[in-house]
Amino acid sequence: MSNAPQDPYGPTPDQGAPQQPQPQQPQYAQQPPAYAQPAAPAPQPPYGGYAPASSREKNWMGLTSLILSLVGLFTWFTAIAGIVFGHLSLSAAKRGEADNRGTGLAGLIIGYVVTVLGIVAMIVFFVVIGWVVSECGGDNPADWCTDPNA
To answer: Over the stretch 45-65, which tens digit does the pLDDT of each residue have?
Structure first.
């Protein structure tokens, strides 16, 4: 009997000599399709590391324009601020700094309509006041101005 240790990876006595291993093909030998290629690295931001402004940076202008223009229905003077912010919102949308052009445009249109209606209302108010003053003032006031029972 031999006391030599047996190689656990070697041939067993009933197998005979070791056989040559067959070359294995790698399982993923095919090239991946073109759409699976890794994306190109992101470009570095210009101007010393500052990233460009996002497209939502100035969206508050359009919303502010719409709110101020609608509040202008009750307070008239806020419609003027709505017009200003509407123009600022549209120019920001044109430059790509905002993406809510429609909101800014709505605030701008409502602001102009409210402003024009306010100007017309002021003109009518002053005409009516002028007419009342001309009817009731002077040496010969109208009867409905002086008669308390009229």
So the answer is: 566 655 555 557 778 999 999
